[in-house]
Amino acid sequence: MSLPPEKVAELKQIIHNQLNQMDVHNKIQEVLTESFHEKGRDTDKDQIGEQEILQALREKGIVDDIMQQLQISEGQLEEERSPWQQRPPRKPATHHVDKDGILQSVPLNKANVDPTRRYLYFQIIGGKAFLEHLQEGEALPGYRCSTFTLHLYFRGQRFKSRPVPCACEPDLKEGFLLELHNPKGGDASRMAETSTLLSMSDPIHLVLLKTDAAGDTTLLSSHLLDWRTVLSCDYGRQSMSIELMGVGDENKVPVGIIDVKLEILPIPEQILTTEVITTQVNLERSRISERERLFLVYAKQWWKEYLQIRETHQRRLVKIFAQDENGVNRFVCLFLKPLRAGRLLDTPRQAARFVSVIGFERSSAVGGGQPKEQWSTAHVFLCKNRGDCEDHSVLLCNLLLGFGLNAYVCVGTKVKGAAHTWVATIGPDGLVTFWESLTGHRYIHQPVNPDDPPSVQQPRPQYPYRTLGCIFNHQSFYANSQPSDNVDVCSFDVHDESLWKAMSPDAIKSICGSSSQSLWPHPAPLIPNPLDASLASNDMELQIRALVDDHRKDFGLTTVWDEELSYLLNQALASYELERATGISAGNEEFQHAIRRAIPDGHTFKGFPIQFVHRNAKRAFSTCMRSQVCEEIVCCRGDHVRLGLRVRVFCYPESACAVWIMFACKYKSVL
After folding, report:
1. Where in the numbering of this chain does the CEP76 N-terminal domain appear (predicted)?
2. Residues 563-616: tens digit of each pLDDT
């Protein structure tokens, strides 16, 4: 018999408190450090596995001490559950239930520690001064509460903390082992020395998110941490407090403070002085600042020349700089870099589908007025799993570049005049394809020749774009200098200087080259979705069935579910998703044949499919009921009424998913 979730959470909390009192964490850390030294001297190829670490802990007697202390009786458990017990000031909410954890199928990776590599152990000790959550109340038992989640990215490595309930002093306690290794040059086969570590200028990117009870995420802070100060500390250990600032218009307002501890493993033989580290950091920043200054001078001159071509160029959307989430102006080409999805995405069209199922969210502003435009870094966008059209276009362009296509981000307007961004690919034969990042749709661009006589039939454009101001990628930037910026008559011969004004490739490389953006995090790699699609589909289907039962009960109607009909709907949903992902329609004929055989003579069939990018059953059902067709199905009255429902969750990388829901009913026709 399994324990209820509340009791499991409380049992974990008791064990967690006991381990903290015994200072087990530091004891394990000391054993791990000793194992590093012993293994490092004996061999260069062996790795320290989990069994070896456990054996070392047994030899030190730590395992026996833990087992003796963890004697939890039923009385102790009830005492811990007593509401009259005095609570410690930083006790996490025991009623927080991580329902998503039940639906995850990917186990935690237990990677072996390589003694030939050096590591940075990044430990989060706790949080404090999150004043906006001073009055945060506890959620009811079994219900979700708002949570904090800290995401970390460093040199191609991504980590994520467990969600903790929002509080003024959140119980953020995590540890991440970051590999410090230089795969280039002669350092690839040996442990990184102190001089090599000093040259690693990549910052640790910390992203703090808040997830509300409905599952919506909000970006609270994006912080770049220079970790190299630990190289000047004794024993390679350093404790510090990091003040996390807000984002957007609130980038000068503190959000909270997290206490962290950094430790280099194994301990470096050479300890640097603070002056050496400060000199190195200042030198790097001065070089980058000088390059940015020179590029700004060039960009101003380039823009002046562009305006001299035609006065109307002043009104065209030529986007040279954009603000990131911290309010820092960045050259737009800095946001782009080819991104390979590994085995997570197979084709460019599948990549477009993945980007389209990431939630759309416009940048908001406090109070009235027009919100400021904000371009998120790739890591922030993937962590939030939502963003504006610029974020979607940048990610899609990076993926298409990774697939080897000649892709560009396009900045212009839509038919109604609203500013918009999308992606264009130019083939070797000059064929131009537009990719709408918010929907995954593709459009072939067929330019209209305005000089043709009226008798010549012109192609009718299917895309929703009106004007085009500029296109760019990680190596090129072109401003539209054609007489008209209308997309219909636009030529994409970017090498024709009379049609497009290009920026100097050397100027772009000076600020976008690998040596110039060391303080700017590279696009984060994609990670697989830990969600089990079958479990998630079944869970959401059961929730919606319960909502349908309650809704019909309010109207005095009984509900009879037809399991066979529900199963047949599955093939329709699979066909819909296949068409969205590949543009190829398949399987509809078989579905129609199956439905005709399942519906008896004299009966009527109705179906209503709809797609979402979230898994909130109540919100999805509320949206469905706004449709007259869906309402007629759910509230169907008559003879021999049978209802069918099928939910399919299609998982994509990160936490993106396409959720298809289909309501159906069959009933005996009266007429």
Report:
1. 10-70
2. 999 999 999 999 999 999 988 888 788 999 999 999 988 889 999 999 999 999
CA 239 to mean position of chain CA atoms:
29
Report pLDDT for 663.
Answer: 96
Beta-ladder partners of 126: 259
Report residue 32 as tokens.
């791990």
d(CA 205, CA 228): 14
Beta bridge partners of 414: 465
The partner residues of 486 in beta bridges, in order of sequence, read 467
Which pLDDT score, from 0 to 100, does residue 9 have? 61
pLDDT: is 619 or 65 the higher one? 619
CB of 144 closer than 8 Å to CB of 618: no
**Antiparallel, parallel or unpaired: β 164-165 and 477-480:** unpaired
366 vs 475, more confident: 475
Q: Band the pLDDT of 102: cuts 50, 70, 90.
A: low
DSSP 8-state symbol, 333: G
Q: What is the pTM of this model?
A: 0.82
DSSP 96-114: ---HHHHTB-SPPP-PPBP
CA angle in degrees (0–180, nearest 5) for 465-468-474: 115
CB 178 within 8 A of CB 131: no
> Closest by alpha carbon to 257, among 129, 125, 123?
129
Helix H, strand E, coil C: the string for 282-327 is HHHHHHHHHHHHHHHHHHHHHHHHHHHHCHHHHHCCCCCEEECCCC
Fill in the amino acid letter for 150: L
